[in-house]
Structure of SEC24 homolog D, COPII coat complex component:
Amino acid sequence: MSQQGYVATPPYSQSQPGIGLSPPHYGHYGDPSHALSPPGVMKSAGPLGAAAPGAMLPPGPPPSGPHQFGQNGAHASGHPPQRFPGPAPVTSSYAPYPPSAPPSYPGPASASPTSRLGSQLGALQISGYGSSQPGTAPPGQGPPGPPLPSTFQSPPRPAQPSALQPGPQLLPPPPTTLNGPGAPALPPAYRQDGLLGPASTQFQPPPPPGQGPGAGYPPQQAGSGPQMAGPQLSYPGGFPGGPAQMAGPPPPQKKLDPDSIPSPIQVIESDRATRGGQVYTTNTRGQVPPLVTTDCMIQDQGNASPRYIRCTTYCFPCTADMAKQSQIPLAAVIKPFATIPSDETPLFLVNHGENGPVRCNRCKAYMCPFMQFIDGGRRFQCGFCSCVSDVPPFYFQHLDHIGRRLDHYEKPELSLGSYEYVATLDYCRKNKPPNPPAFIFMIDVSYSNVKNGLVKLICEELKTVLEKLPKEEQEETSAVRVGFITYNKVLHFFNVKSNLAQPQMMVVTDVGEVFVPLLDGFLVSYQESQSVIHNLLDQIPEMFADSNENETVFAPVIQAGMEALKAADCPGKLFIFHSSLPTAEAPGKLKNRDDKKLVNTDKEKMLFQPQTHVYDALAKDCVAHGCSVTLFLFPSQHADVASLGLVPLLTGGTLYKYSNFQMHLDSQQFLNDLRNDIEKKIGFDAIMRVRTSTGFRATDFFGGIVMNNTTDVEMAAVDCDKAVTVEFKHDDKLSEDSGALIQCAVLYTTLGGQRRLRIHNLGLSCSSQLGDLYKSCETDALVNFFAKSAFKAVLHQPLKVIREILVSQTAHMLACYRKNCASPSAASQLILPDSMKVLPVYMNCLLKNCVLLSRPETPTDERAFQRQLVLTMGVADSQLFFYPQLLPIHTLDVKSSAPPAAVRCSESRLSEEGIFLLADGLSMFLWLGVSSPPELIQGIFNVPSLAHVNTDTTLLPELGSPHSRRLRRAMSAVQHRSPYAMKLTIVKQREPPEAGFRQLLVEDKGPQGGASYVDFLCCVHKEICQLLN
């Protein structure tokens, strides 16, 4: 089956009109000495059909090269790169992200200037080039995609004993200064005729002046949607036409047209067009699900929904050698408590009473669809370790004529990928049932918080949110108990027992050895003690109104909350409202260490490490007692997020940060975050274990977790937005027949105090063909994995090394595809696998993130904050975070309810007459062009012109106009995609606040450094060429 890829043609290749057949394809990428394929390897024929004349652009300025990156010295020599090895001498030949360094293309020392120029990427001419080798996968095998129109079938390709094809041939041109000595002909741009699909009109740029439209290539059969339609524009001028031209310097080259390189928007829209709104059933092993950006209904038929588990590839290589060769990480992003839409079936609960779940005797895997019943139903064979176990008498059932139990469809654990078990006392701490969890609210009442009204705001809001405490679906009231503590340099505990007329305060001044001064009356039911609690919340702002204490403690606050939960023998969550660096004498005291001099040095990693070991030890203690910490931070200056945020990160809590909090601007964002956090679906005191079938195992885990051994992932709490990314490695061969099976089991305590097991099962296919591996990749999950592994590594590795490894691994993955899966072609062509055609743009977005980009202008706290956020993100959140959504609001159709189609994140997509909404999951911008239509401004802001728009507001006026209603609906749809309330910033074109908006235009060169997408693609291509050479 042909494997589609993207081709890019270099500046010095030009199609030769009038010659219909392909040039010779050399087995060794442009080395004529290997005209035949190596023995035993059949190379497939080149793409069929006549070559389309390339659409050449008029001469222009030379291309802007990738100034920011060079080749990765350590890997160019052919050593397999390690992912983030320990600190080691760096043999790189480039400095990371120089703001305005001259372009340098260091290459092998032996390369002459002419051959070096010949190996540089000149053009990217995108077409559907690159067919897989014969035998990679017969048609119809491999993951089923959406049904394709019959016109997509390509004609059969003849087997080729020799690399030459009959018919007119293109001979290698004579040596020139342009192509180096004896370089072979570079092939013309191809198209596959007869593969006509629906033409896409989106993003079809007009042809440059004085030129007809370029030859458009039809969409092609692919794993994740058809290829970009539209003109396939080549980068610079072609090979000089006659001898007269050869003598002089090469003609000036035209800069690469961004429309001719793969677009994330095109990939997202194409997947929506083919799979959106449909039912996706999980009954086939190894099928690739719709993208996270595609709305569809998921029906569990034996494998876990992609809402719970997404993989970097749905087809694992059979051997460790193949995995090493491709460099594609084998990983799963698991979100065990993911929110399920109301139209999908919630998880079934299986209760076997005192017997508990049926498990394999050897590996302890839980009963699931991968177990095979034998011996008339009396025994079952484990799908994970192949051990045969007896079926307990209570669980026995006869088998039908195909060896399936008669009750197969009545039992969720036999027919579904995800379900829950009620756990027995054996699964509980001290073999006794757990108590329902408790929430403790802890408010920093230091001078500045009282004076700026924050304490009053929190107390008022708590009255509202306590009415909405989360509860079990069938229960009328919440079983969660609540408690209250305020603090500055000392701690104040409150007794709010229901029979008291007034709340009572107890002060703990010994913050070195915190103890809980009261048990009875500290944790209470909100329903029973409502009047006392309201009384307390009214009194707290007045109680501390005259306090002038500005120093605070922090670690003792967490210690106190944990001790209170321990004393009550229940798991729970601390909600801490804190605003400054804890400088008072106490454990966990911090000093200001915001040192910009460390940026861009080997000591930069210290900025991401906690300042003291107190917080690491405290986090492990919290996890051991089921105490999760969520921190609402309101810093007006440096607060050492790397230290304060560690406990929320490791205990499965969340860190919310509101820098320079202003009541009138930021209160709504904070209140929305608080409401959402309290109402989240959540499990407490959790242990997760990931089991796999023989041949591979889970080796590395990333997320808000603590691990005291190599297998048990411990989480004080896990909510609907938290994901754990798991990396797998081979420890033996995998077989194509049995595939690769994964079972994720999470033991946890519910909001009602019941111990349960949540099970997610997923079957992946296995193949000994690299082509199948590439066809089944999911770019969004790959980027999630790379981001987490890089952000984990920043604690102990220089950022420069991490950036190099990311660039190098991107190049390795694409070079392996190029070498082993694509048709032979000129080495100067960039060929991308269809499933990874937007991997370079996403990897460049990751490289430009402030965590990996060493810039003194970026606050250290902001870098530490983003690092911690990403470590617990699921695939949908990381996709939006690294490639923000840009919506043209001025194109909204007021008569339609559909949101406007997103456009690429680049300044070139903006227009002075336009209004654009931009969101990355943390912040939202409304950008107003200088010539925005007055009727739109009137409809949205209720003012006559742009000059009258107040940019200080963070809320839009609620007007009845259609424009206002449609914009607010679009904003609410974007907000719905993020677990964080996004504060709206209104920016006018060419005004100073625009800088923050421009930073999110990720396809452009970063205002604070970082390559543009075009430059990065050139850089990656150069590195691929070096690997192939």
Q: What stands out?
A: The radius of gyration is 30 Å. Residues 8-82, 86-248 have pLDDT under 50 and may be disordered.
